[in-house]
Amino acid sequence: MSLTADTDATRGLRIRNVGKTYRIEGRPLPVLQNIHLDIGPGEFVGIVGASGCGKSTLLRLIIGLEADYEGEIALGGDPIGGPSRERGIVFQDHRLFPWLTVTDNIALGLEGLAAAEVRERIAENIELVGLQGFENAYPHQLSGGMAQRAAIARALAMRPQILVLDEPLGALDSLTRVRLQNELFRIGRQSRMTMVLVTHDVEEAVYRSDKVVVMEPRPGRIKATIPVHLDHPRQRGSAEFVNLRERVYEALQY
Amino acid sequence: MTDITIGTVKKAPRRGAVRIWRGAALPLALLGAWAIVPHLLSAPHPLLVPLDEVLAAPFTDTSGREVWESLVQTLLRYGAGFALGAVAGLALGLLVGASGLADRLISPSFNAVRQIALFAWIPLLTAWFGNGEGSKLAFIALSAFFPVALNTHDGLRTIGRGYMEVAAVLKLSWGRRVTKLLLPGALPSIFIGLQIGLITAWLGTVGGEYMIGVGRGLGIFIAEARGQFRMDLVLVGVIFLALIGFAANVAFRRLFEPLIRWQGARP
């Protein structure tokens, strides 16, 4: 913890002039360029953009899964140099270990905690995602939606400061998706968890986010950052909402 | 509590039984012929020992009774040699599978040495360890070592990158990474290695005994019986070899297949 003033600017996530280049067959392929973004603690940020615009790469950089990048990424003033339990991720695919039960999968991220604490967090998060009764099920015994819920529980159980979500609900049926989105959103608000959600769903992004980041591809850049200063729960039909949604759609067209 | 059904294998008992009997028809016919034909000959032929005499030999014949002691010796040797080779193979496979540096340092040599035909090792081993137990154990261990090491390495290499990233994100300690990710992830492949190793070690056991020849064991029993032209005892030995090879495979499956149940409904 830094001793400087505990303001949002120092506690939040600071992304400055970040670029990332992959090498494909020896030739450089820039996937991210000149990314500036500030995310305050407890903020909900939606990132939208066409495929190939580097959304997922940006999340991987925040998590610390990509070592080699230009620019500066810092959380609470500390530069990010690798993964940390302060930063959780839910991938597009659930990535549960197939040889572990739901309980054991969630317990993976709780190494080092007291046994009672581990049990408590597992029970709490299984309930949160509505998987009671499936504690001892193996991933292959779960439906896709249930497996994704278990993956969300695994990430939440670590109680990260930031949770990044790489379109984790895209493959779910709409009913389950809406329910889980509501749950996730509620959890984020309640625990003041910062959330960064990559999504294709513009409506959803505007509905949830404190700001919507619109990205454009080749190379991945931020086209616009659109703040959404509307109180929750938002009225999808209200003039302001429709107006903001149109602004996001406009930014997406290039 | 919701009940979860684990995928069960549907059996068609009638068709299965028919298939078994169809498969068994030829061996049974041969056994029947073996039981009858030698008795029909006017003069016994030394190569054609009646089935009942072969089956009685381990109990009634003085030399035949030695098969039991040979059996015990062979099983001990097989077990010890396989254990040695499997442990060494696992260790090497895990090392080169988990460490890129070890992989680059060791794998080329390993792959070169692996090309040597197994039985070509016998002259070398007997030169190093003599004609006693040491050479035989080393040979059995070596025959189990290669498939186990190879498949362990392969199993680790094919663990999805996605799972490795999860381990990084969850900050798994080194120990947990091994016990919760690397070992279970590589387990199906490790089992295949152990299963092949069990077979090659069995070949190594009998082959080593037969070729090195000192001491007791089924391979030696057969070699001696052949030397004395005791066809009945050779056949006794061969029957035991087949039974043990078969039993080892069945026992292994029974023991270890439950451990990889999680593979269940993989597409």
Number of domains of chain B: 2
Number of domains of chain A: 2
Uncertain regions spanning at least 5 consecutive residues of chain B:
1-9
Mind telling me the CATH superfamily name of the largest domain in chain B? MetI-like
Q: Which term fits the overall shape of chain B? A: globular
Biggest interface goes to: A-B, 30 and 27 residues
Q: Write the CATH fold name of the largest domain in chain A.
A: Rossmann fold
Kindly name the structural category of chain A.
Answer: alpha/beta
Mean pLDDT of chain A: 85
Strand residues, percent of chain A = 25-35%
CATH architecture label of the largest domain in chain B: Orthogonal Bundle
Helix content of chain B: over 70%
**Gyration radius over CA of chain B:** 24 Å
The helicity of chain A comes to 25-40%
Structural class of chain B: mainly alpha
What CATH architecture label of the largest domain in chain A applies?
3-Layer(aba) Sandwich
Rg of chain A, alpha carbons: 18 Å
Q: How does this model look, in words?
A:
The complex is a heterodimer of chains A (254) and B (267). Chain A is globular, with a radius of gyration of 18 Å. Chain A has 2 domains: 8-86 and 160-252, P-loop containing nucleotide triphosphate hydrolases (Rossmann fold); 98-155, no CATH class. Chain A has helices spanning 8-11, 55-63, 102-107, 115-128, 144-157, 174-190, 202-208, 239-252, and strands spanning 13-24, 27-39, 44-49, 70-75, 78-79, 87-90, 162-166, 194-198, 211-216, 221-227. Helices cover 33% and strands 26% of the residues of chain A. The longest helix of chain A has 17 residues, at 174-190. The N and C termini of chain A lie far apart (42 Å). Chain A contains 8 helices and 10 strands. In chain A, helix 4 packs across helix 5 (144-157) and helix 7 crosses helix 8 (239-252). Chain A is of the alpha/beta class. In chain A, strands 6-7-8-3-9-10 form a 6-stranded mixed β-sheet, with helices on both faces. Chain A has a 4-stranded antiparallel β-sheet with strand order 2-1-4-5. In chain A, strand 9 and strand 10 form a beta hairpin. With 267 residues, chain B is mainly alpha-helical. Chain B folds into 2 domains: 10-40, no CATH class; 45-263, MetI-like (MetI-like fold, Orthogonal Bundle), CATH 1.10.3720. Chain B is built from 10 helices and no strands. Mean pLDDT of chain B is 84; it is low at 1-9. The A-B interface holds A 63-65, 82-85, 87-89, 91, 93, 95, 97-100, 104, 108-109, 111, 133-134, 137-141, 154, 158 and B 1-2, 4, 6, 162-163, 165-166, 168-173, 176, 180-181, 184-185, 187, 260-266.
